[in-house]
User: Fold these one by one.
Assistant:
Number 1:
Amino acid sequence: MNEFRDSTDLVGDAARLRARAEADGYLFIRGLLPAANLERTRLEYLEVLRDVGYVDAEGFRDQLVNPANIPDGRGSLHNDTYAELYLLESFHALQLEPALLDVMEALLDPPVLAHPSIISRVMFPQREMFTTPPHQDFPHVQGTHDVYTAWFPLHDLPASMGGLAVAAGSHRRGVYDYRPALGAGGIAVIDPLQDSWATNEFRQGDVLIFHSLTVHRGLPVTGDRVRMSVDGRYQSVREPVLQRSLLPHMGVTTWERVYAGWASDDLKYYWSDLETTIADVNDAHLEQVDARTLEEFENGSLPPELVKKSIGALERIIERDDPDLRERAAAALAAHSASDES
Ligand SMILES: O=C(O)CCC(=O)C(=O)O
């Protein structure tokens, strides 16, 4: 795999940052975020993870996993622990760091809206099956193509802790076709995009920024430590945005609960003075992946661990108005229930 092209020396030069992001679909910037602020969030995360037993009580500062408490069928946190992390004031402040906002203002038509729906990922080691599959953010984020994601680990990230890879230049070909997959997002780009993948080890404070059409994927966490990272998303206020991007990620909690314990009011509802236009959810990508799921279900190529998950896709097809697909989905479901009963 290639290394990222380093764009650290372009910081402060809006035109060159924009040109590089448009050419490659991503920017890798060393030391953009203050390491001390990341360290604070890292330790706050680890205290929560230690209290629920996911990391070792002694080695929690080293992010050492407690394998006995990691469920077999999971690559990441239960929602109740995620909801606890979501309360942390220092975590929400990270995506609003001035240096990061300056880069986003260089890439987008200001004023910039940082989606309040910030995302955090805690990835357990030795769970390769749940590694984030190759995908673009657009099918999830929607609203406008002109969204940039900032992805950064809370800590130094050696290769054994996984990380993120991008397919350089993949943002120029629209929305790709997908198949169902395990791991964050649940869908995988079918095109292998060989030879275009790039990644890097990170130091605390390094940031990867990529366009909503840039294909990216997680890398397996192979050691014995958890990987903890943040995704912030940014767009121009002038472009439409989905309502869910203004709410806590996946509805894990509410802003009232998030804000109840904060020391300062400064960042609460920071977007409320911005005039946003709410976009309708577009199901076109979901329909494509549902049809592909049906095809794989019918021809028996769906991996066993996805069969149960795919029932939802078949049920959605039955609710839609394509008579041919509906008939096939109903037949596939009937065959599945018959085989379950036998
Ligand atoms: O951190 C990860 O593994 C996945 C991040 C990502 O791709 C996303 O949130 O879109």
Note: The chain has two domains: 2-279, 284-341.
Number 2:
Amino acid sequence: MSLLYEKLEDYCTLNSSHIPDYLVDLERETHIKTLNPRMLTGPLQGRLLSLISKMIQPTGILEIGTFTGYSCLCLAEGLQKNGILDTIEINEELKPVIYKYVSKSPFSTQITIHFGDAMKILETLSGKYQLVFIDAAKEDYIDYYERIFDQVESGGIILADNVLWSGKVISDPQDETTRCIHKFNRHVLSDKRVENVVLPVRDGLNIIRKK
Ligand SMILES: C[S@@+](CC[C@H](N)C(=O)[O-])C[C@H]1O[C@@H](n2cnc3c(N)ncnc32)[C@H](O)[C@@H]1O
């Protein structure tokens, strides 16, 4: 990431709404306790997720790839009072941190954390969702998308993270994971059931609206 881009991201963050204290603490603890803290969404994209969720005011949110729970708690900010959020994570070692911060948030009774492989867990979920955040195994993005598509209501939004893959969609298109990401982006673009926009926010966010 160039110095100018980093400074612009800092500027954008400083001029965006403040984040709740428990998210500041969660970000710090993620840096101390995990090997790859860069996976965490972070303050700027977190505010975007929160704002999108508040615009939709969903009763059902699905997240695939919880990590330490940062994006989950940002998305939950837009839930209606009777709304629920399902989030899926394969790494059980993350349990203590996820539970700690979900409990500190105002949304603990609305969030269910499912531990296991996303494709298997998805078979057990039958709810309807107005907002979905795809952020787990990059190789499986198309499978996640197709698996959940019928459970997304018309007008609902699917967000897919890391769709620029550190710029490798341009700089290293032959890299295996990059090819999967690129294939996913082309899959969405050619899907007549949706309209979408790819934004260069953080590592790239594909915002997809089901018609
Ligand atoms: C990029 S991180 C998610 C970051 C989180 N959404 C956030 O923004 O704070 C991806 C997460 O997906 C999880 N994951 C990877 N493969 C998975 C799978 N097959 N099923 C469920 N979770 C998976 C990883 O363990 C990791 O915690």
Note: The chain has a mean pLDDT of 97.
Number 3:
Amino acid sequence: MPEATYRRALCWIRRDLRLSDHTALAEAAAAAAEVIVAFVYDRPILDALADPDDRRLTFISRSLDELDSGLRSLGSHLVTLQGDPVDLIPRLAEHTGSEAVFASHDDDPYALERDTRVAGALAKDGRSFHSHKDCVVFERREVLSQTGAPFRVFTPYSRAWRALLTPEAVAERISDLARLARAPIPLPGWAYPGNLPLAEVGFRPADLWLEPGETAAHARLRTFATHGLTEYKDRRDFPGEEGTSGLSVHLRHGTVSVRECFRTALAVEGKGAAKWLDELVWREFYHMVLANFPHVVETTFREEYADIEWPGTDGHHDAWENGQTGYPFVDAAMRCFKATGWMHNRLRMVTAMFLTKDLLVDYRRGEAYFARTLLDFELASNNGGWQWSASTGVDAQPYFRVFNPVLQSRKFDPDGSFIKRWCPELEGYDANSVHWPSATGPLEQIAAGCVVGERYPHPIVDHDVQRARAIALFKA
Ligand SMILES: Cc1cc2nc3c(=O)[nH]c(=O)nc-3n(C[C@H](O)[C@H](O)[C@H](O)COP(=O)(O)OP(=O)(O)OC[C@H]3O[C@@H](n4cnc5c(N)ncnc54)[C@H](O)[C@@H]3O)c2cc1C
């Protein structure tokens, strides 16, 4: 056991809700004789969430319940607080006599500013703040081009990323759990010994499509490694199948370590695992973009598109959000999304491109709706995905390559089963006509039990016309 520098330290967890392979916890336990694990229900973030049924709070709360149980089985417990961390973390450090605070990097602009202020407040009292990389393997300016600049194109970034990869970069971070503070930790009245009940944070429990917590994340990763990884390349584009890992929610909240995901991918040979690793590198790429080009939060990555005036209407935006566009693949995706908070990657691309190129609505409106609704919402990846689809981003889809939503539907939902699950009024259409029911004749529509314009809407736009308008808008 290394000699402790500090008598006591706080490990402030935020987007790393687990105990295993946890950089900040490992560092805290290496540096301090006693470590208190704390979480703050961050009111500046929570107060901006309009919906008391927000599913993400259920995911976080249940993951913290498991984390608290894990700590209790080791003789300690979690400490939760609610309020502004800039005020609470220094106060908790003072009250508990913690000389240092350990946390994981979070490069979202709000978090960066918050952490700078927390570090400043701690320093005033002679306490230190240590933040460590954890949610990606390579961050910020670690992967640079030969000229020392951040990459603007994925393929060379990915090559450089791989060239830097060593076993140490993805090695497990092991914590000395014997150094956890013993229960009961003496606390002031404003700190809660355990996980604050969800109702006290102002949210209601919501149904989730996946199990929260570290145990469930491991189980999902193991199942995917055994049954999904080798076929990933062939199955990943079909929303009707379970061809992807479904781990993004766990990665977002850190109930799984990204290093463990990489170790899993590297341990399996073949094209499936290689493709999956590639997708994890896309995640790293978008984190790098956010850290180096933070203007993307407000405006287009590519300056030449910053002034586009998107002519799309509120009515079209609302039809998109409610799955009432008359394009079945888009509508099924949007209805599934509203009901579950989840959307398959292929559908994210199709619906984002439909909003921006077919409906000509500003990508920021779609990005904001996804940000409110996605269980796996991550600023870097969401912004990256939207700007890719809108052709305004770093290494984006060129503006003249516009997805045809009906062809996408035929290709990626060939039997229409995904459409029929979420647009049950189209159940009577066969596998050919379900992708574009408005092209069928009146008798066929009656026979299918759903006349277009009655139970299912007419297409709200003509794809060919809108595609030409979108291209003209970009050219202009
Ligand atoms: C418009 C749009 C918005 C998006 N918003 C988000 C978001 O808020 N949060 C988010 O995690 N992903 C986002 N993505 C990326 C991607 O759609 C999801 O990561 C993926 O669907 C998650 O499913 P999975 O875990 O089964 O992925 P898998 O296919 O199993 O991939 C493994 C992991 O790699 C990462 N990944 C995969 N594809 C991408 C990608 N294109 N960009 C970045 N990372 C990727 C994710 O962490 C994912 O969990 C967005 C994509 C688009 C087009």
Note: The chain has a mean pLDDT of 97.
Number 4:
Amino acid sequence: MAEQRCYYQILTVEKTASSDEIKRSYRRLAMKWHPDRNPGDAQAEIEFKSCAEAYEVLGDAEKRRLYDAHGHAGLRGNPHHDFRSMHVEEIFSMFNDIFGGGGSRRSSGGVPRGYDLQTEVEIKLVEVLNGCKREVTFSRAEVCGTCQGDGAKPGSKPITCATCQGHGQVQQTGLGGMFRMVTTCPNCGGGGKVITDKCAACRGNGRVRVNRKIDVTIPAGIQDGQVVRVQAEGEPPRLETSRSGAGVRGDLHVVVHVTNDDRFERQDDDLVMPLAIGYSQAVLGAVVEVVSLDGPVHIKVKAGSQQGDVVRVDERGLPNLRTKRRGGLIAMLMIHVPRKITDRQRQLLEEFAKTEKVDVKSAHEGGFWQKMKELKESFTGN
Ligand SMILES: [Zn+2]
Ligand SMILES: [Zn+2]
């Protein structure tokens, strides 16, 4: 474990600093090390998170007292956040009272949240077996790095909207004063500020579109059409709720399409495949090797097998998304009748035919369509 740094040093304050001084210093450092301002700089992100960790302690009177008295050891057993594994946006939303607003309206539901985004990926059936990773590229709105989202040319500032006096909402009276309606201010669009000198990079929007590429982990057992949700990879909060982007990002929804495999038909976690066998194998029984999604499997064909009979091999299907328990591989027997036979085979069959008495009735009773019906019922039944 790395040596733990002194929290006062991290926040560059004296041990006697007031809580306001600590807060101010944290805000300044968080902005300095914010990953959006230091793109691609891993050290900046580490600093950013260290500051959050330090502030969580020093910004809390009780935790600060414990830390002052016993150092890092004093905090053991005290609930704390694992900032290293947290998203920057989550950290921002945690300390929303420090970063929040920037003059914009606070959303009534607490922390401002951005839009979710959706994208799609295609995977092969065989990839459902163990899960896989996919690189996805998508476009999303980002807080403009030039103006930090306020839309004003650097050096200038947005001014308070004259129409709504910065409230973002206006009251309208209708029907001789019978109704009072509160609507979003048409002049500023609800932000409470107007930009006179627009930022050139975002044309005053405060947001720019950026292509983003991430690796998405697709879990084993996923079904066609299911969605993998990647937290906080969506858009930053909308301008009306947070110009600076403070708050939480929306999520990225990845819709997974599983392409068909000619060899198998998927029935939930089971894989169904046709298995062609010869007449004599059906009569005498046989062990037939087939290729499953993960290597060869031996199928035991019982003596006296009928067309359409199914043989199930447990745990050679696909894993269940939740339990990870594997379904079965189901071979459906198709008795192959050769179009051409040799003279020797003809001779043997003719010999055999003399001994044979075909029972027409049984073919109807236990026939193909009945088997199909039973098979269908067994799938829908579980
Ligand atoms: Zn801008
Ligand atoms: Zn306004």
Note: The radius of gyration is 34 Å.
